[in-house]
Amino acid sequence: MALHKVGRHPEQSEERRRLSLNPFYGAADPLGSMTLAPPQHRLPEGPMAPAAAYQFVHDELMLDGNSRLNLATFVTTWMEPEAGRLMAECRDKNMIDKDEYPRTAELERRCVSMLADLWHAPDPATTVGCSTTGSSEACMLSGMALKRRWAHRNRDRYPGPGARPNLVMGVNVQVCWDKFCNFWEVEPRLVPMEGDRFHLDPQAAADLCDENTIGVVAILGSTFDGSYEPVQEVCATLDALQERTGLDIPVHVDGASGAMIAPFLDEVLVWDFRLPRVASINTSGHKYGLVYPGVGWALWRSPENLPEELVFRVNYLGGDMPTFALNFSRPGAQVVAQYYTFIRLGRDGYRAVQQTTRDVARSLAEKIDCLGDFHLLTRGDELPVFAVTTNPDVKNYDVFDVSRRLREAGWLVPAYTFPPNREDLSVLRFVCRNGFSADLAELLLEDLKRAMPELRAQSAPQSKDKAAATSFHH
Ligand SMILES: *Cc1c(COP(=O)(O)O)cnc(C)c1O
């Protein structure tokens, strides 16, 4: 059974499926005249012509959304044709085959060095790091390193079993950290939201730490509203904790989005390896790293931060290359595309792209503010992402209605409720990305303005999907 629900398909009624075919499909099939559509939930008995198979799949996919109009995702939806060409050239390369594809392996190493330099690692030459399938895998690996280092400390101090490790973070963490804690049996200690604070509070984090805390996660920036968590203050508070109690708690920075924004647009912000307490950092190459889905990065300050026994060496592909990964086989194309984008843009190019995106976000936020019905929780001036809610005097409609109306115009703008202790708050979130131009933002605004009179004329909020949207994590 697939994990997502499938409805009842009319597959058993071959009668209907036969009628849905016309002679063009049959004519395209050199293996015989095709009169039946292929079954959808079991393997067809025999092959069909590539053109026909292509058409079946292609036609069905037309009903997917248009990714460029999707303001729900952080993931890259546009790359240059040259990047696409390189990726096509590399789609047969397996990233794990480092001996077979030494140049791909070398490009991965160079990307790690470039990120180490960008994030101010004390010694980029000895910084360890790897590519992953995305930030989720990078967070699993980083969390595992934190847990193993804690286990070593714990074993030295308190021999014998018993202690349960915990991880301290804001309730606003991305779902990958809930997964990490669940899969690796670590107790999540979550700092709730309070009032107008929608992300981690440094003192509240320090207060949750004890001798079994494997680390504190700080997010740059928060999935829920695009705000940067105060990494420097978190580190300072943990410094004070160490002075008081001797507890030395490492910090992991989840920079899924912000680690590719802040180095270019917020150079004065100190959040990275400049802070000695920051042990590791991850980012999604496929978010503001500007590569199509399928690549993330994890870096550790120094080899001591990544226990040696977690790194595997296999010799059955030839060679003896160390790897730290959950997967074995994985595409090499995204890593090549990351390297392409790094040399194609350079620092100035990245700065220009990210600045344009943030300008679009800020300007759209400003204009939505001017409509009068909305309250902005963030303004798109950290991540190019902002969250808005309706003003208290708006009673006739809610953010779920707005989301639905925008969807009717083709735009995907999710509405969801916040986690504890602000479950009372429902927001719309706009994620602006490269390719969401000022022109497109203007069109979105026009569609929103067009929907306003009808929304205001409603007698009450209409949406029923509020309950279903309460556990939003993306
Ligand atoms: C997107 C995101 C993740 C998960 O990253 P993937 O690359 O989608 O696996 C983790 N943390 C934060 C803060 C994110 O925004």
From TrEMBL:
InterPro entries linked to this entry: Glutamate_decarboxylase, PyrdxlP-dep_de-COase, PyrdxlP-dep_Trfase, PyrdxlP-dep_Trfase_major
Coiled coil stretches, renumbered: none
Organism: Streptomyces wuyuanensis
Protein name: Glutamate decarboxylase
Family that this chain belongs to: Belongs to the group II decarboxylase family.
Record GO cellular component, one term: cytosol
Residue numbers spanned by region Disordered: 455-474
EC number from the UniProt entry: 4.1.1.15
Catalytic reactions of this protein: L-glutamate + H(+) = 4-aminobutanoate + CO2
Biological process annotations from GO: L-glutamate catabolic process
Domain of life per record: Bacteria
Keyword Metal-binding: no
Positions of post-translational N6-(pyridoxal phosphate)lysine modification: K287
Molecular function in Gene Ontology: aromatic-L-amino-acid decarboxylase activity; glutamate decarboxylase activity; pyridoxal phosphate binding
Top EC class for this record: lyase
UniProt KW keywords: Decarboxylase, Lyase, Pyridoxal phosphate
Cofactor field: pyridoxal 5'-phosphate
